[in-house]
Design brief:
Blueprint: H1 11-29, E1 32-33, E2 36-37, E3 46-47, E4 53-54, E5 57-58, H2 64-75, E6 89-94, H3 99-107, E7 136-139, H4 143-146, E8 156-160, E9 168-172, E10 180-183, E11 210-213, E12 216-220, E13 226-229
Parallel strand pairs: 5-13, 6-7
Antiparallel strand pairs: 1-2, 3-4, 6-8, 8-13, 9-12, 10-11
Length: 231
């Protein structure tokens, strides 16, 4: 009754936050594992469920040049007939340790080139075109939680746009797309026989019971739609 801090009324929101965390953890676990990139989705090469072998795992550090190289590698992925798919990588996923590097790469207007050795200079483009390609940065704070390897702070991922294909997917049971939060009805009645509020709690202990349920699952689909670089 004296819940001036609203500890009980805030409980449903805390349960909803817990469900959101569970969703994020499950989604991240589809492409990351304790040892690094999930072996069910990444390899050099990895068996494609549709047949053939796909190479989508490298050891490049996160730099402008290596992002460009990874985009080129994704574009060269082939279908079963050996034809390039021209996949456009647009989602750059990084751990918190690489956030500033990732933001600098996709927002910088110019590139800086350093010439090594003597001789005539070679004209090179200085404009960073990555911001024009619609590249989006996603900082995933759960990567250091799931990936406990020594390379977690240098590992980054690239995913294709969803209109081209899906690397992995998480979904919900039909009709249960949102977390279900409920309270246990009080098993107490007043001396007049009238039912009491759920906040009256359990008859024996006055405890108030909450429950949250989320029905979801996920799986890996097409390894050609993503690329991981351990760095």
């Amino acid at each position: 009754m004296n819940d001036f801090l609203q500890a009980f009324t805030k409980m449903p929101q805390r349960f909803a936050n817990a469900a959101t965390y569970t969703e994020a953890y499950l989604a991240t676990s589809l492409f990351a594992s304790a040892a690094g990139p999930n072996i069910l989705l990444y390899g050099a090469p990895i068996a494609d469920p549709a047949g053939g072998a796909v190479t989508n795992l490298g050891q490049l550090a996160l730099t402008i040049q290596n992002v460009e190289a990874t985009l080129a590698l994704m574009a060269q992925q082939q279908n079963q007939d050996g034809q390039p798919l021209g996949i456009r990588g647009v989602h750059l996923v990084v751990p918190p340790a690489l956030e500033t590097t990732g933001r600098a790469i996709i927002t910088s207007v110019l590139k800086q080139w350093t010439e090594v050795g003597a001789g005539a200079g070679i004209p090179v483009p200085t404009v960073n075109v990555l911001p024009q390609m619609g590249l989006q940065l996603h900082v995933n704070p759960l990567l250091p939680v799931i990936d406990t390897s020594g390379n977690v702070d240098t590992t980054w991922y690239m995913f294709a746009s969803l209109d081209q294909g899906v690397a992995c997917e998480m979904d919900y049971l039909l009709g249960h797309e949102t977390p279900e939060i409920c309270m246990k009805a009080s098993d107490k009645v007043s001396v007049t026989g009238a039912p009491l509020s759920p906040f009256s709690g359990d008859f024996a202990t006055d405890n108030i019971f909450y429950r949250v349920r989320i029905v979801c699952g996920g799986t890996q689909l097409d390894p050609r739609m993503t690329y991981a670089q351990v760095g």
